[in-house]
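## Example pair
The file below holds two records. Each record gives the amino-acid sequence first, followed by its structure token line.
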Amino acid sequence: MSRFRVLIADDEKKFRRILQIILNGDGHETDTAQDGGEAWTLFQQHDYDLVITDLKMGDTNGMDLLHKIRKARPDFPVVVITAYGSIESAVKAMKAGAYDYISKPFENEEIKLVVRKAIDFHNLKNENRELREALSAKHEPGEFIGKSPQIEKVRRQALEVAKTPSTVLIQGESGTGKELIARTIHFNSPRASRSFIAVNCAALTENLLESELFGYEKGAFTGAMKTKPGKFELAHTGTLFLDEVGEMSSKVQVKILRALENMSFERLGGTAPIRIDTRILAATNRDLKQLVKEKTFRLDLFYRLNVYPITTPPLREYKDDLPRLVQYYLERLSRETGKIRRALSEGGMAKLHAHSWPGNVRELKNCLERSIIVSDGPLIRSRDIRIDNDMAPQAIDLLDIPIPPEGISLEEVEKALIRKALHQSGHNQSRAADVLKISRSTLRYRMEKHGFH
């Protein structure tokens, strides 16, 4: 059974203690308050799953507390306790929004059952809300556009691993759709109705990332005015997507490794372990194996993350899909910008084909959005397409290479280029392929053809 945090509010110390013993014995964490005012202060400072309150207390009674909680969190479950025979006050509390009531004296199993039902009801409401948010979120599987072998392979891998609870490491250049792959995995998994939470590890400092991932207790540091759950905790029973994991400090890497090994962690400033059932998807545009060699990324964490690797291909490797991508984004962007639907001229498509797309699909989308804005008719022409060539690799004018009168062997030129690329990349075939602007499989084919070993 899951462990929940319950706040008990009652002006009788003995009764508070009895409830605490019952609920702690049932595996729950409890805090107590002697009146409604103290309970309201605790409620604002901590993240509770349920409040149990007596109706008749000091200055701030149970009804006042109920009204405050309902105003702050309308769906939060509150169970009220009434004296024997006080049915009228119980009915009044139920009308005010209490989940249930229980009369003194009561049996231990009776209070346990009411607590379980209240928390189950609350969790069901949360699940329904998360499902609505997930369905309304800006996630369109149709964005995974393409019929090339490279895209079909990635799509197949994503759908295969979605059925499992395995950790996935998604690697690829910036703009190749790594988060889209992660969302495809989540929304096609048994966890699809639960939370998908994404964290950009490169966007936060070490301390901020640590508190963002693991949360903190009140008073853990200056400014920690109330307890805050972290992303690991919020993604419980769902999926946590860690983007740009190659940018994490060694300190954060150690904490994440421990969380993955034990499926539990402590908040900053806390001592109680918090158990989680969270699926981890990670992504990076860095070569983690190289970072391991450079001792800036932990080998043990790499193995923990690299259970099922997926590599997203750069756009330059599947340009045959450009017409499909262009059609999709032109239709979508026309809707979003309120412009009439545009088509692309042959010259415009030729210009797109000629570009190397170092920013990949993200760069293509931005380029098309600019083109829709500047074009003055239903057709986007070559002149409407503005490509930021400052971001592209500097082109080499191959026509400036002199050819001797006796001629030159094209095969020898190719062999020399491959040899130089391998030397420049430290004989890393993936990096050598990137330097030559070809796929790794193409490089390996040409190496075999030329007798490289």
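Second record, same layout:
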Amino acid sequence: MQEKLEKIIHQIVEEGYQISPEALEYLSSLNDVQLNVCLDRILSAAKREDVFVITLPFVKEVLKVEEKKKIDVEKIPARLEIVSSPSTQIELRITSDILVSYFRDKYRKLKRILEMRHTYQNIREVIERKRVGEDAKIIGMILEKRENDDIKLVVEDETGILNIRIPKQNSHLFEEAKRYLPDQVIYIEGKLAEKQLIEAKSLDLPDILPAHKPKGTETDIYVAFISDLHIGHPNFQAESFESFLDWLKNNGRKKVKYLLIAGDLINNPKEEENYNVLYNYLKEIPTSIEVIVIPGETDATLPILPQPPITRNIEKIVKMDNVKVLGNPALIKIHNISVLLFHGLGMERLMEKINLKTPIELAKFLLKSRHLCPSYGTTPLIPHLGDLLTISNVPDIFHLGHFHLVFHDQYNGVHIISSGAWIPSNEKNSNKLPCQIPIMNLKNFEVRILTFAK
């Protein structure tokens, strides 16, 4: 440090200037690269403006360094917008009309995404032209998939049905198509090999374009992500959870504006009395913190997607001014940053079907498919007159519960956050450590993992 101070003084005095102690202290806090650049700019400005003493205000004016204002996050009002959430009025009946309406709405929503980046023909036009060898481009929903030497897809749009062949010789396309599922909507480009057969040259899912770049807040505002409390489980880590609440009531309240809870609040849907325990916990949270809650499969609501909000024995929680009880999935905006909350119930079957090894791979696959249940029948799903699981709006943050695993990753600009559990894992050699909380700064999307395990 002494050597750096001497270097600064020597360079400034040699140029015929003096420097105030405050300016000297500030410049000495810079790293060597920053210091060299800043000194050149300061000395040039001093010569230009005929300054004799280099003061801290002058340095900051030249470098356009803004004073960091200490902002009391508790006094900043929450800015919460609920964009979408399943209704409590979900019908369990399935009719042919409902199924047709569900698949048509899913197709149209995903087609709308694809047609913004691709030109295409409808299937009837391709068939009627009957020009074998001609280029063909279509958007369709996969009806069937068969895999032998080649992969064969049967796809349809609202005008007809076509067969698609993905030859094994095209190894990259072949490997990509291995993970395609019935009911996914895809773009296909290829050549008409026969009257009703296209040999594919390229395929595309609705996906998220790499150009997506979320814009952070102007000030440091933090959000905490938790899930899978499993209150009522014999191994629920009550002491650790209370330690987290103590942190929120003290140091945490100075930073955290939002607490997002992604499902499995209690351990057994038949033990609704445990929502009273949850209510007592939520009462401990400062009212300056906005709490958003969605259900999981162990909560007292339907264990199918889309899940309606919890309604049984939760009246006291619903009446809390700083708590919002939503369904699963829920899309919200906090300080104009969009967050998709999703408890991934039943996702293990989907992962097994297409050989996804980790929840990170699953999250990226769902975002790439732009759908939270890409294939009907792979996860518990009740169809509706409209599809409620398409990711029409690209979220800035995708918050995933269910897997009891904490991680932060990114996919094409979307921050993926998985929150852990408050019960220990019973898996051998598991990396699923309980009582860990990802905390994100909405200004720069940096994430820290806090541990409250006792």
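Notes on the second record: Residues 261 and 293 are 5 Å apart (CA to CA). The first helix runs from residue 2 to 14.
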